[in-house]
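Lest this sound abstract, we let one protein speak, letters for residues, whole numbers for local backbone shapes, and leave readers to judge:
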Amino acid sequence: MLLEIPAVLSPAQVSDVRARLAAAEWIDGRATAGPQSARVKDNQQLPEDHPLARDLGRLIVDALQQQPLFVAAALPLKIFPPLFNRYAEGHAFGNHVDNAIRYASGGALRTDLSLTLFISEPADYNGGELMVEDTYGVHAVKLPAGHAILYPSTSLHHVRPVTRGCRVASFSWIQSMVRSDADRALIFDLDTAIQRLAGEAPHHPAVVSLTGVYHNLLRRWAEM
């Protein structure tokens, strides 16, 4: 499931994040890449343990946890502390699949979902699209600043070369309570349908019945 999460950060928050990142010192992005990714990764990154990365990461995690769409789709159990990357002219990231396990101060995290939060506006740069492959083809993603894209970490993906300007983004991974992408998508579709029905016919008895089905499926599939 490939899903846009709009307005994770407000325009004021985006402006503040951009200003603080503009003054940061960036390092070679291959510092945090695995052996396979390092061969195709050409960008810059804020050091993972940098105080600014930690501070802005907490801001993003707090914002995500207040987004009903993100919570409904991801069913997050753990969120990896967000990282930050920068693509200047000529930078790109070739085809790769994200590592299955990531390690942070809180321990190991299974990467069920990947998330990219755009900090630069699309007009600020040419190229730089996130290209995500799934069973329906290859999808180009280039979102307004403050918006995020959520997709399965099993997806083959790459970032096209930036030919003008600079692309700055944050990225993270989520371990979901529901491991299977297919099961998670089914629960999300059911949740969406329940919310629509509850809005149109709040007293319909099917709302209660379907809500029970939702929670029984979540109870069956959730890993805590």
Notes: The longest strand covers residues 167-176.
